[in-house]
Amino acid sequence: MAQTLVSKKPESLWVNRNYLLLWSGQSLSLLGDWFFAATITLWIIDRLARGQSWLPLALAGVGLAVALPALLLAPFTGVFVDRWDRRMTMFWTDVLRMILVALFLLLTLVVQTPSILLGSSLVTLLLCSCGTQFFLPARVVAVNDFVAPEQHPMAFGSLQQASYFAQILGPSVAAPLYLTFGPAWAIALNAASFLISSLLILALRIPAKEEKGTREKRSFWQEMREGLRFFLGNRVLVTLLISGMIFMFGGQAYNGFQYLYGQENLGIPVALLGLYVASYSVGIVIGIPLAANLAKRWSQVEILWCCLVLNGLLIILLSRLTTMIPGVICVFFMGITNSSILVTVRPLTVRVTPRDLVGRVMAFELPMINLAALVGGALAGVLASTALQNFHASFGGMRFGPLDTIFLAVGLLTIGSGIYARLMLYPAVKRLDAAEALAQKTSGAANNLIEKQE
Fold first, then answer.
1. Which whole-number Å values give the CA distances from 148 to 19, 153, 348, in the listed order?
2. How far apart are CA 231 and CA 367, in angstroms?
3. Which of 186, 216, 283, 448 would give a disulfide with 332, using CB separation of 3.0 to 4.6 Å?
4. Cα–Cα nearest to 344, from 202, 203, 160
């Protein structure tokens, strides 16, 4: 069971100074990220790849640039994150990303060639994602240290809620401001957000014992093998991984084409595309506290698999819609059901993982999840640009085109991930609950015996 360095009577989550500083810095940083990502996506559609047959492939490249570092770099970051000072790891990744984005901003001011700007935007996204591979595991350990276990669903969920709140504001405002001012403003905002986040991280007060473990120093490969053995031997972690891979294989196809689908299939004007995409994030923001409260009554596994199945059914429904308002409503409820993943998966991970192995566990989990996303996004991009480019079919009185066919497949995969989670994860967590209850009962009996002897 994961170890935490919190008191037996923890303070309220929202008066926890360290958590508030971390949450505030992440809220600003994530807001800048989503302004940046939404603007780059709109820039590609409107100018950098406008009218090109490979436009869908270029949009898929945005997702690939974010996912590729998690595949190639993340397997090696876990050992370092488990070794290094967590606070300084987060600080320096934010500082380096601030410098990178500032350099990209200077490039956009002096270069006007679309091919160069497209390539440099993808490279910037790629390198920023490299920093994320160090930042995220360190953040998970920090939250595990700052927050009591019973508050983990709300704590991890609130960080994700901040991300999706940024998705509400980011895409909604990005589209009209992009059309008015161009892309430079969003790039500058992202650089400034990294600066503010790094300063707030410096203000964290982390006791030395939380940052300097007493583990015997071993070689890099010995520590990596230790983490891999633990991961593969843990049924809960393996089941979460496989279920997540199935979900993200289809999910990246949806993420890569949500703007284009809104424009081509739902007939949404460019100026309103951000509002359509943001409706998903509104659902997430509303759904996270609902799911966190629901977790007090239902098991996390029950919430997870039921909402995955519902999410898949909603994606299938979306693939049949052709107008904006029903599409916005459907995407909103997709966000509500998707919030269950954000509230349940990470608490389950830290529950079964010792603190000094969290970095390596995430180093094995994230690359495989992102490999599935990489393959799914690349396959969807290639199919939409080649075999499905002129695809049209009718079945049962319904018409199918390239993007709605892809979305139909995504919905079926999401349902499959929920069913798999129900069949495999539920018995594994049941056994874990039983083992913890027995250990607690045995410990209580031993304490009573000691008290009687005294």
1. 11, 10, 14
2. 13
3. 283
4. 160
Identity at 56, one-letter amino acid code: P
Write out the chain's pLDDT in tens, 454 residues. Answer: 444 444 444 556 777 888 888 888 888 888 777 778 778 888 888 778 776 777 877 777 887 787 778 777 877 888 888 888 888 888 999 999 999 989 988 998 888 787 888 888 888 888 988 888 888 888 888 887 777 777 777 778 788 777 767 766 776 677 777 777 778 877 888 888 889 988 998 888 766 544 444 456 678 888 888 888 888 888 888 888 888 888 888 887 887 788 888 877 788 887 788 778 878 878 888 888 888 778 777 877 888 888 899 999 999 998 888 888 888 899 899 988 888 887 888 888 888 888 778 888 888 887 888 788 778 877 877 777 777 767 766 676 677 777 788 888 888 989 988 898 888 877 777 777 676 666 666 655 555 555 555 5
Q: What is the sign, positive or negative, of the torsion defined by CA atoms of 303, 309, 314, 315?
A: positive
Q: How far apart are the first and last CA of the chain?
A: 30
Q: Are strands 398-400 and 393-395 parallel, antiparallel or unpaired?
A: antiparallel
Collapse the DSSP code of 43 into the 3-class scheme (helix H, G, I; strand E, B; otherwise coil) and give the result.
helix
* 31, 135, 162 from 144: Cα distances, Å: 23, 14, 18
- CA atoms within a 13 Å half-sphere pointing along the CA-CB vector of 148: 12
380: which 2 tokens? 């969807």
User: How far does Cα 237 stand from its chain's mean position?
Assistant: 17
Alpha-carbon span 192 to 95, nearest angstrom: 10
Task: Report how far residue 345's alpha carbon sits from residue 339's, in angstroms, rounded to the nearest whole number.
Answer: 10
